[in-house]
Structures are given as C-alpha cells and as structure tokens.
Amino acid sequence: MAEKTSQKLRLLVVDDEANILKSLRRLFRNDPFELNLANSAEEALQVMASTKIHVLLSDNKMPNMTGLELIKEVKGLYPDSIRMLFSGESDMTSVLNAVNQGEVYRFILKPWNDQELKVSVNLALAHWKLNNDLEQMRQRHNEMQDILRRIIKKHPELEPECSRNLDCNELLNRYEDLTIS
Amino acid sequence: MLETQSTLTEPKEHHQSVHSDLPDNSEFTILVIDDDPSIRGMITLFMEDGGFTVLEAENGKKGADMAIQNSPSLIISDIRMPEMDGIEMIEKIRSQNCQMPVIFMTGYTEYESLSDAIQFQPLGFLHKPFEPNQLLTLVKRAVDLKRSETAREDNERELETRIANKTGQLEFKTERLEAEKELLRGIMNQANFGLVALDTNCCVHFINVLAVTFLQVSPENIDIAIGAHYKDSVAPLFHRFLENQIKSVVDTQEIVENDFYLEQSRQRINVVTYAIRHNDRVTAFVFVIHDITEKDNLQRKLSQTAKLASIGELAAGVAHEINNPLGFVNSNCNTLKEYFTSMVEYSKKLELLYAGRPASGDEKQCPDDSITNLKAEYDVSFIEEDGSSLLNETVEGLDRVSKIVMDLKAFARVDSETMERADINKLIDNALNLVRNETKYKLEICKSFEELPEVLCFPGQLIQVFTNLFINASHAVKDKGTLTISSNFTNDEIVLTVTDTGSGIPEANLAVIFDPFFTTKEPGKGTGMGLSISYGIIEKHDGSISVESEIDKGTTFTIKLPVLLEQPDHGDGA
C-alpha cells in the first residue's frame, strides 16, 4: 500500500477556467513537485487513472460534475489522496459539510493568496508523505514484530530484552526519518 | 199683469217638480224686487211653495240694501222701478262685491235698458207676462249653478286641504332629504378620499373637502365650483390628466385608474374614474382620489427590498464570477513581480558581463556560454515567452471584473425620479451577465435581437425584471435547457419574449403568479415578490407582461413596452 518516497510528488489542479490553470502553472513553476492540470472533472479522473496523483486541488463550480462530486469519487477510488477544494462561491454550506466529513483536507477561497496557496499545497504534499511514511513504518513494524515473535519462539529466554530493544530502535530510526522530511 | 197672475197659479205639476228636485231649498234665499206687489206676492208664493226662503223689496234702493245685507242666493228683479231702477241696483250690489245671479223681469221692450242689463251678465230675462215654466227653468238653473258652485267650492276646499297635506308631506320629505343630503355631504367630507362628480357637460356636480385639497381648488373658486366647468375651479396642472381620464372612460367604457405625481409636494395621488350610466346613457363622471404617497413609498421600499433580495440571490454567483478572474489576476501580478525582479537582475548581470569587455566590442565577442547560462539562471526565455500572455490574460480578467461590477451597478442603483434613454437589448445583456453564473452550465442562451430604438425607461428596474425572469427560468430547468430571448420592434411597440424549456407553470398558478408573496419555492428560497414587482415595473412603463406555459414544455413571458418619447403623466420615479 505505501510507496517509496523517492518518487516525485504530484499535484493535480482542476478548473474549467483556463486562465486560472495558467496562472497556477506560473505560480508553481519552480516548485519541486510535478504539476498536472485538468480542465474538467472528467479530465481529472482520466489523469488520475493513468498517473498517481498525491494531491488534488479542484474548483467547485464546473459543468457536468462539480468539484465536490469529483472529490467524493476520488476519495473512493484513491483514499490516500489529499483533496483540496478551490472556490469563489460565498455560499459554503455544502463545502463546509464536505470539509467536516473529512472528504476535503483544505478549502481555499478564490481569490487566493499565492503564498498561502503554496504553503497549503506543500503542506498537503508533506501530509501525504507523512501518511505514506507512517504506513511504511507500520508495515516494517509489523514485519519486525513477526521476526521478533519468531526469534522468541526459538529462544524464549531472549524475550524481555529483544522486544524492548528492537522496537525502540526501529521506532527511533523511523521517527528521525520522519522529522527530516 | 192679470195674465201673469192667472198663468202663474195654473200649473201645479211644476210645483211638484221643483219640490222633488229640491227637497230642501230653505238654504236657497231668493230676493224678489218689484214695485208691483201683486207680482212680488205671486212669485213669493210660488217660490215659497218650492221650499225656498223668499225676501221681498218694493224698489231698487231697498233691494240693494237687502241684497248686500243678506246676500241672497238669487235676485229676481224688475228693471223699471221708482227711486232706483234694477240696473242701478245691481250696479250698486255688484260694487259691493256681491256676485249672486240675477234674473231680470221686464214688461216693456226696452232695448236700451236691456243692453245695460246685459253687462251684468244676468242669469236670464223674464218678459212679462211670462210662463211659470220660464221662471222655474231660470230658478232651477240658478239652483244648479249655486249647487255646482258649492260643489266646486267644496272641491276646491278639499283640494286645498289635500294640497296642504301634500305640501306638508313634501316639506317633511324635503326636510328629510335635506337632512340626508347634509348627512351624505358630511360623510363625503369626512371621507379619507377625494370625490368629484361631474355632469356630462363636465360641470362640477359635487366635490368634497379632500378633493378640493387634492385638486388645489383655490379658496376664491370654491363657491363657484359647483355647477361650473371643472376647469374653472380645479388647478390647471390637472386639466390634461382629468381630460384624459374622462376620455379613456368614454373610449373604453371601463373604470380607469391612474396615478398623478405632484412634484411640488412630492405627493402621489391615485385617481379612479368611472361613468355613471342610466339606461345606457352616461349621466355623470365620478373621480375618486386617494393619496397613495405612503403606499407608494412602501412599495418603493418593498421593491428595493426585493431588489436587495435578488442581489443576495445573485451575490454568490456574482462573487464567483468576480473571484475567479480576481484570483488569477492577483496571482499573475505576483508572478509578474517575480518576472520583473528576475529581468532586472538579468539586465544587471548582463551589464556587468559587458562592462568587462572593450567598449568597441560587439556581441560576437561575448562568449555565448555565459549569456546562455545567465538566461537560464534568470528564466529569461520563459519570461519572454510567457510575459505577454500573462499580461493579456490579466487584462482580460480585469475587464471581466469591471464589466460585472458595472452590470451590478446598473442593476443595484436606485433609479432617479426621471426616466433615461436606454437600449433594451443592452439591458438584457446586462442582466444576462449578472446571472451568468446561475445559467452558464444549465441554460443554452439563444438571443435573437432586433435593432431597437432607445426608449425612456428606468434601466435599473428593467434589468431587475429581466434578471428575475432569467433566474426563474434557470430554476425551472432541472438539468439542462434552453433560454430563448427575442426582441422585436413592431407598431411602435417593443415586444420581448423570454422562453425557457423548464418544467412549466400549472394552470392554476398562472392566474396568481403576479400576486405579491406568491411563491412555489421552499420557505426562505423565494420572497414571492419578484414577479409582482416586475409587473409593477412594467406597468409603470405603460407596458404589459403576460405569461404562457405548458407543463414539462416550458414557459414564455412576453413583455410589451411602448416607445415612450416623454415621461407618462402618472409615472416617474419609484
């Protein structure tokens, strides 16, 4: 389930307004992540089917399929993705509901502040990475637990020391990894 | 004389007839005047037999005295008599205003005295010697005369009594009528509306106190107002208006209602005019005048509230329309700032690079590598390529923002009291821009605009009407539909149609959709004022708005606007 974090993180921005996509391409042109753009919810789903997307930033008011609908669908298809909504509407009841139901990681108002948007996007990517690392750690932890259990089975006298040392070291290493990234 | 005597005594049957005809003749007094006592006696006897009361006199003088004193019912008199003859006697009696009938007796053929006697219009003449029948006939005539006179007098008396009664009743009725009239006048004068009644010659039949105030009848004209032509008392500024009202009533045969705005007092009065008909003929015109200033102000506030409500409804959409361009414009500007910094740095570095070279040196001497590196370092190629499209997009975004703000301004501002010239097609576009966010993913918009003359109107209010219709259309369409808007100019009239392919309006609702507070939307979603206020606005433009609808097919609103060249009398600001 978890992936190796060496690969490049990818952001997908969805908006039916081409000028917005263009301005965001400018904004993120020097950022270390890969930027993908889509003009509609349908196009976004196509992109996501062929490319692993880590963070999705979608406009809400779009023809045929709204951003919220897209986000709900993406949540089902790619539960590990971080989803953000991007909207200029002032009636936010449905949007806030979505946020509260945990479907939306962050809600960004139009017009946006470039720096805040950058921070949000990077935070989201970091968040995904954290989640992913946590998952990897959990996997390794489980593996270690398995090994430990097998060792203890063979050498029951080692039980008290082994369980403590291995667990702690492993945790510590992973924890350092985490904070650096 | 003897002859007379004998003839008088003879016929007894005549007695009888007198008797039977006059059962009680004692009230009938006969004065017999003759100097010949035998004739006197004869007649007396004969008359007394008939039941009459008989008085006697032997000459004119005595006869006159007795006649005046006793006023007998009949005088039978000789003409020729000593002392005073019959003619002279009658003259005297008549001079005393005694009008009893007279029968003259004469023994001679004296034409002279006869003609004298005739002027007193005697009942008859008895020529001596005469037959008792002749006397009887004359007396009977006198009796009949007396009787009929009495009857007439009785009649007259009765008539008089009846007339007096009637007069009394009439006076009573008149009094009551007068009191009622006074009461009615009181009621009318206390009424909270003005009332004027004109006859068919346009002369004032009635005008109450408030109408005097409303129509500014000057104090010196109040007294002459009733009965005079209304133009002689009503202030001149109303003449044309009232004239038009009467004209419309006559033309349409309907009740005509219009408003009139008094600029000086900033009052708005509503005038209802109708004709009173009797047997299909107009007998009067009535004006009922109400001061609707307050109502009008309220309506204006209500309209403003509805406008604010629709602004609220629009706000989310409009915000979206503004926030999108604002977002990328803002971001682009930040990027541009970076581009600029980058370019400034690049140019500084470039200067430094060239500063190290000999002054005469041309570009070829500059090592390509260093420039390429410099360009790459500062992203120059990208900036050069992207810069102009960034600026174009930004300008386009700003245009969009300013356009939507202008549309919103045209809609939201309070219209002035006077109308302005405007192109209706442009107002429709204005409204379409405002609702674009509402419609853009739902409605395909088909416009077929004919070139229209500019018309006097309240532009903001018309945009309000159009916005309303478009939003309704968008709400009526479930997923996707078409909104067809057409404008035509025919017969001096602008005809606009707005057709949607929505769910349609049930027939039962068609009659009430223009009523205030009628809404089919959920509570809190619609005020129910939109169409009602639209109706009022179109009416204020002297136009009309109508609706046709078919369930599941769609709805068409048709607006007709006359091309006004000047402000209508009743209309102004609202």
State the distance separating the first and last CA atoms of chain B. Answer: 117 Å
How many helices of chain B?
18
Q: Provide the low-confidence segments of chain B as ranges.
A: 1-20, 570-574
The CATH class name of the largest domain in chain B reads: Alpha Beta
CATH class of the largest domain in chain A: Alpha Beta
Largest interface: A-B, 25 and 28 residues
Count the domains of chain A. 2
Whole-number total of structural domains of chain B: 4
SS-based structural class of chain B?
A: alpha/beta
Explain what you see.
The complex is a heterodimer of chains A (181) and B (574). Chain A is α/β, with parallel strands linked by helices and 181 residues long. Chain A has 2 domains: 10-130, Rossmann fold (3-Layer(aba) Sandwich), CATH 3.40.50; 133-180. Chain A has 6 helices and 5 strands; from the N terminus they run E-H-E-H-E-H-E-H-E-H-H. Chain A has helices at residues 18-27, 41-50, 67-77, 93-100, 114-154, 159-180; strands at residues 10-14, 34-38, 55-59, 82-87, 106-109. In chain A, helix 5 runs antiparallel to helix 6. The radius of gyration of chain A is 20 Å and the shape is elongated. The two termini of chain A are 20 Å apart. Chain B folds into 4 domains: 2-154, 3-Layer(aba) Sandwich (Rossmann fold), CATH 3.40.50.2300; 191-291, Beta-Lactamase (2-Layer Sandwich), CATH 3.30.450; 299-406; 415-574, Heat Shock Protein 90. Chain B has helices at 2-9, 12-21, 37-49, 60-70, 86-95, 111-118, 132-190, 209-214, 219-225, 239-252, 293-355, 368-377, 380-412, 424-434, 436-439, 459-476, 507-510, 530-540; strands at 29-33, 53-57, 74-78, 102-106, 124-127, 194-199, 204-207, 256-262, 267-278, 281-291, 420-422, 443-449, 455-457, 481-490, 493-500, 544-550, 554-562.
How would you briefly describe this protein structure?
Chain A has helices spanning 18-27, 41-50, 67-77, 93-100, 114-154, 159-180, and strands at residues 10-14, 34-38, 55-59, 82-87, 106-109.
